[in-house]
């Protein structure tokens, strides 16, 4: 079980593209059309399965919101930060 990160650790490690909201980190990605967002959500799901760490994925019109927290630990851990970095890398690919 990973350790919960301190507020300072979260501030230091959270990618600039993400926001912290309490016990979650979140980012909303914009897309040119709805199905590109749907496809992105699929890719996020595949990353989540590979990492065995699963975000909430909210598919909207031309946008996808990702929300991450470590449920078992009850807050934000390294696993959430790593997922944010992997998802950003996928989005930039
Ligand atoms: C039993 C538990 O659900 C699993 O160990 C994994 C699955 N994916 C998970 N995803 C997230 N975000 N947090 C977890 O604690 C978590 N636990």
Automatic annotation (TrEMBL):
One of its GO terms (molecular function) is 4-alpha-hydroxytetrahydrobiopterin dehydratase activity. It catalyses: (4aS,6R)-4a-hydroxy-L-erythro-5,6,7,8-tetrahydrobiopterin = (6R)-L-erythro-6,7-dihydrobiopterin + H2O. One of its GO terms (biological process) is tetrahydrobiopterin biosynthetic process. Its EC number is 4.2.1.96. Keywords: Lyase. Pfam families: Pterin_4a. Signal peptide: none annotated. It comes from the Archaea. The keyword Lyase applies. The keyword Lyase applies. CDD domains: PCD_DCoH. PANTHER family: PTERIN-4-ALPHA-CARBINOLAMINE DEHYDRATASE. Belongs to the pterin-4-alpha-carbinolamine dehydratase family. This is 4a-hydroxytetrahydrobiopterin dehydratase. The lineage of its organism: Archaea, Methanobacteriati, Methanobacteriota, Stenosarchaea group, Halobacteria.
């Amino acid at each position: 079980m990973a350790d919960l990160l301190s507020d300072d650790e979260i501030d230091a490690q959270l990618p600039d593209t993400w926001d912290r909201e309490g016990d979650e980190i979140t980012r909303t990605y914009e897309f040119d059309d709805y199905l590109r967002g749907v496809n992105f959500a699929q890719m996020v799901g595949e990353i989540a399965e590979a990492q065995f760490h699963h975000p909430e994925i909210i598919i909207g019109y031309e946008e996808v919101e990702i929300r991450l927290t470590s449920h078992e630990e009850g807050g934000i851990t390294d696993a959430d930060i790593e997922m944010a970095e992997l998802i950003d890398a996928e989005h930039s690919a």
